[in-house]
Amino acid sequence: MDSTTILVLLILVVALLAVTFGIRIVPQSKVYVVERFGKFEKVLHPGLNLLAPGLQYVAHKVSVLERQLPTSNLTVITRDNVQVSLSISVFYRVVAAEMAVYRIENVDSAVHTTTAAIIRAACGELEFDDVQSRREFLNNKIKAELAEATRIWGIEITRTEVLDVIVDEVIRKQMQQQMAADRERRAVVLKAEGDRSSVQLAADAQYYRAQKEAEGTRVRADADAYATRVIAEAIASNGQAAIDFEIMKRKVEAIHSLAASTSSKVLVLPSDVTGVLGSLETLTELTRRGGNRG
């Protein structure tokens, strides 16, 4: 084997080694952190990448998938000194691999510790009822503060969830008693409001009845005044004849009332009824003529 052949074989071996150690295919769910002589060089993203064999090498392989911390229970004390246990779940993902590798050793432990501190501080500002009823506010507050605290580690907090609020048996009994008292109070308030509405409606009905009766009395008074005025005008115009006519009309109305009564069995009429009726006819004619003349 001559020197030329040996040289060609050597070149082939070097090329094969360069291809083997210089080409890196990074999967979609990861990024590679590359170092040169122990110092950070660059980050290889998914796809085909080239390295300088012997000078550059992959030091860390970091997953960029979303991660979930193990669900943990944290004991907190609210502003009104109630001790409760919160079940917390945190989701995050790495967005800057070099920061996650070189700035923190154990990302999961660091995120868990920071989450516990933020949750205790947030719950210390809320009362126990708010911790139960304002879950969304608490989740958003924890997420915002946790994202700000963990940004230097190259991670992004995608979601935080307060899964459950756990209380001891004493607090649970107190809550049940409070709910029962609230239901009883609401029932009393509703009954009082119903009674008040009933009284108000009854008063409105009485007021409406009195108003209508007053209007009826006023109408009758107006009618009586008008009748009196007409009679006065007739007396002024016809004198004694108009007076006799009004007296006879009242007699006829009285006879009609007696005849219409259901309790009347025997009706005794004055002996001059026929004369009364005849006089009424005469006065009616007289009144008609007086009206025509007017």
Sheet-strand content, in percent, reads: 15-25%
Shape descriptor: rod-shaped
Radius of gyration equals 53 Å
If helices are DSSP runs of H or I spanning 4 or more residues, what is the number of helices? 8
Uncertain ranges: none
Specify the biggest β-sheet. Answer: 4 strands, antiparallel
CATH topology call of the largest domain: Tetrahydropterin Synthase, Chain A
Helix content: 55-70%
Give the overall pLDDT as a whole number.
Answer: 79
Strand tally? 9
Could you say how many structural domains there are in total? Answer: 4
CATH superfamily of the largest domain: Band 7 domain
State the end-to-end distance.
161 Å
Q: Structural class, from helix and strand content?
A: alpha+beta
- SSE arrangement, N to C: HEEEEEEEEHHHHEHHH
CATH class of the largest domain: Alpha Beta
The CATH architecture category of the largest domain equals 2-Layer Sandwich
What this model shows, in words?
By secondary structure, this protein is α+β, with helices and mostly antiparallel strands. It has 4 domains: 3-63, no CATH class; 67-167, Tetrahydropterin Synthase, Chain A; 175-237; 239-294, no CATH class. Helix content is 61%, strand content 21%. Strands 6, 7, 8 and 9 form a 4-stranded antiparallel sheet that branches. The chain has a 3-stranded antiparallel sheet with strand order 3-2-5. Strands 1-4 form a two-stranded antiparallel ribbon. Helix 3 (107-124) crosses helix 5, helix 6 packs across helix 7 and helix 7 packs across helix 8 (273-293). The longest helix is centred in the C-terminal third of the chain and has 70 residues, at 169-238. It starts with a helix and ends with a helix. The model has no long low-confidence stretch (mean pLDDT 79).
